[in-house]
Design goal:
Distance between the termini: 51 Å
Number of domains: 3
Number of helices: 16
Order of helices and strands: HHEHHEHEHEHEHEHHEHHHHHH
CATH topology of the largest domain: Rossmann fold
Strand order of the largest sheet: 2-3-4-1-5
Radius of gyration: 23 Å
Largest sheet: 5 strands, parallel
CATH class of the largest domain: Alpha Beta
């Protein structure tokens, strides 16, 4: 299902950007001066990097922003030929209007090969008089130092829960949705600061029912309630390994979750358990070991059952 709400509710100006007050203030100063350096936006997915880039273009260029703004996704086209071809061809052409430069937005720039980044560095130098680059990356450390030194770096953080709630409520009001409080809590929990994920979850739930509660959200997004994960972990800690194993089996069959998805949710609920802090430390360490084994190709079911067995042994040390 294509999420048209992402574009529909994308900020039209920097003032509409949710969260990131300090970043918006700095970017707005560039817009007022009608000039900006090369920019590097770094941070997790769904935190507003693309929205800020488009908002800058809209405010700078007005009606001609589409002619002066060129977006490329580096994860699809990440070789040196793209830099020497598409990027260079756009960079060398004159801008339309009175701003004096145009913008190339390179999304997921950390996916560029090292050769492509080296070529990009030179292109950024040669055409800086008529073109500015905005690079977006999840991991700024994967961008070579010469490019980082040419850019003003902005670091985006996951959005706060209250910022996610505000936007979800605004969209629900605009779309005439009846959104219950537990549904908002569920969306905030599932999004984990990723606004794109929150909007996706809301739209999918809205396609099921106009009256949305937590059950609709979890069912529509094929997600498991945190209480179910917590129950499995607590069963293991109480020494009821077989019962916890059955609960784990349900997660695989009923929800179709991957092992890594289950691990991430286990990691979240551990901190809410009423157990000694040193035991939480042990449990997090075991989760880290299991996650590494899954990444290395271990069998999901075996590794997660082994994790529950370790939880049972941890629980044995403090059970009465």
């Amino acid at each position: 299902m294509n999420n048209i709400w992402i574009e529909k509710y994308r900020p039209k100006s920097l003032k509409e950007v949710v969260g990131h007050k300090e970043i918006v203030e700095r970017l707005s100063a560039y817009v007022r001066a009608r000039n900006l350096p090369h920019l590097l936006f770094a941070g997790p997915a769904g935190t507003g990097k693309t929205s800020c880039a488009i908002a800058i273009a809209r405010e700078l260029f007005g009606d001609t922003w589409r002619q002066n703004f060129h977006e490329l996704n580096a994860s699809d086209e990440r070789g040196i030929n793209v830099v020497r071809g598409k990027i260079k061809d756009f960079a060398r052409t004159a801008p339309i209007g009175d701003v004096g430069f145009k913008i190339i937005f390179l999304d997921e720039a950390d996916a560029l090969t090292s050769d492509a980044q080296a070529a990009l560095r030179r292109t950024m130098e040669m055409y800086s008089h008529i073109c500015r680059f905005i690079l977006s990356a999840n991991y700024s450390s994967k961008i070579i130092e010469p490019i980082q030194s040419r850019c003003a770096i902005f670091r985006f953080k996951p959005l706060r829960d209250e910022d996610v709630r505000k936007l979800i409520l605004r969209i629900a009001d605009a779309e005439n949705l009846e959104l219950k409080e537990d549904a908002i809590d569920a969306i905030v929990f599932l999004s984990r600061g990723d606004l794109r994920k929150a909007i996706n979850a809301l739209q999918v739930a809205a396609s099921v029912s106009k009256k949305i509660d937590a059950n609709v959200v979890y069912e529509a997004t094929s997600s498991v309630r945190p209480e179910e994960i917590k129950c499995i972990v607590e069963e293991a800690l109480r020494g009821k390994f077989l019962s916890a194993r059955e609960g784990l089996k349900d997660l695989f069959i009923k929800y179709g979750l991957s092992g890594e998805d289950i691990l991430k949710q286990m990691h979240q609920v551990i901190f809410d358990l009423a157990i000694p802090e040193e035991k939480k430390i042990e449990m997090v360490e075991k989760i880290g070991e299991t996650e590494f084994r899954l990444v290395e190709g271990g069998d999901e079911k075996i590794q997660l059952e082994a994790l529950l067995a370790k939880f049972a042994l941890i629980g044995k040390s403090f059970r009465p």
